[in-house]
Amino acid sequence: MNAEEFDTIVIGSGAGGLASAICLAKAGQKVLVLEQHYVPGGWCHSFHLNGQRFSPGVHYIGLIDDGQSTNNLYKALGVANELVFFRMNPKGYEHCWIGDQKIDMPAGIDALYESLAQRFPHEKENLKKYLDLVERVNKQVQLIPKMKGFWDHLTIPFRTKDMGKYGLFSLKRVIDWHIKDPLLKSILNIQCGDHGLPPSQASFPVHCVVMYHYFSGAFYPMGGGAGIVKAMTNALKKLGGEIRVKQNVTKIIIENKIAKGVELEGGKRIYAKNILSNADPSNTYLNLVGKENLSNKLFKKLSNTKYSVTSLILFLTLDMDVKKAGIDSGNIWSLKNENIDELDNELKNTDILDGTEFPALFISCSTLKDPSSFNGRYYNFEAVTFIDNASFDKFNHKGDYHSEAYAKYKEIIIQKFLNNIEKVIPGAKQHVVHAELGTPKTNQRYIKATDGNVYGTEKKFNQIGAFSFKCKSEISNLYLCGASTVSHGVAGAAHFGVEAAAQILNVKSATLMQADKNQKLRIYDAENEDSWPDFIKSKIENKKRRFNQTI
Q: What class, spelled out in words, does domain 4-55+64-84+222-304+459-512 have in CATH?
């Protein structure tokens, strides 16, 4: 009799869950978001170590310029006015360090072509054809969900002919048909790290979408991932929505194949007309719904579902001027050689403690990507590599996995990371303020990611498109959103969070994606101080002053 009731309960506060919640609240629904972590955001959250901010899941975002899709998304959600983005180095937002070669990927498809054509003149014509193909396939992928009615379906084979021709092939197969130079292939495939599959296993259309997302350049939010989360939670609260942290949902209440509410750790029950899960499908269906409420078909699909790679993330603060070592706001992809398939195999099938360095590493300086975070002295880095989740099986015992053995295991890995970092930033080892390691166990603890995955379900052919998990489940009034439904990444998850809200409201997603003309996203150049307005300069000076008072 005294139980709380809502129109929709959202389980999990990642980008998809928050985007859905905002859309539902805008439509007048009474919305509650439940987050098991002590801060909202899922992979978008930020945290502090000794006063330094880190964002484990937000390293860069694309299509932020005015009129582009991510920009329009934030305007439609009504959060653009609260957001500030910094444009990462347009001359090289990706720095490819492959063996002893260093090649930059500049912003703009034309600039990228000119730069790579100059470096690889023997591949000039092939490169042009390949980049054009990537652009066409991406546009055709985006077109498919918009197909409505008889005429669209009649003409779809002609309007998506490149998808039809290349859609079922791996990235390796398609790029091998077009490009012969191994180093150029590696550069064009470097963003495999953004979906977690090597060229031989990656879906060509998925890789096209990822590449296109950054063709116009890359951007980083002021405040890190937390800047996005703060804007979205503020918008939700203004609309009357509610978000509660440290709320561990242990069960979705099902009666007669209808979702009725949720049960929290401790037994409290909250009821709603709709339940929207931002958790991954295995957590949602197997842990919260329960096998007894699933059809044999869905249970079989879940049993065969594979999740994406897991990661090690080094959160590092250095007390040195890293700009003197050539570090800027661009990401660094450091590979031992140009064979990404070989490196992927080595990362996932070699004992994690073998060797003194990792064969592949992603390195990102968040301090230079977000100049407003600089305290005048320290520079923060996030370095990432992929591993097999089984590397941490020895710590799967019941209870808290933290132990002396776990701490020692991490310390060996940290030193291995630092050996890689030292090659990129000479002298770094002597200037470490602190270095903390995030592991698959960390991902499971704070994000509740099945197998510690970082991109939701694995984006292979049999788990994407028509074979992916749908927003609307087989259980009435239960919906899913997030990286395991249609698309992953900050923007992808948010876009399809809007789609989940549209299905709950029984409207077209385009209805919810009308950009608010009163919203404007502010964008400044991370590399150009002259572009920064006074409030950012004041923010930096205040940060320096407060830091100097503490030392």
A: alpha beta
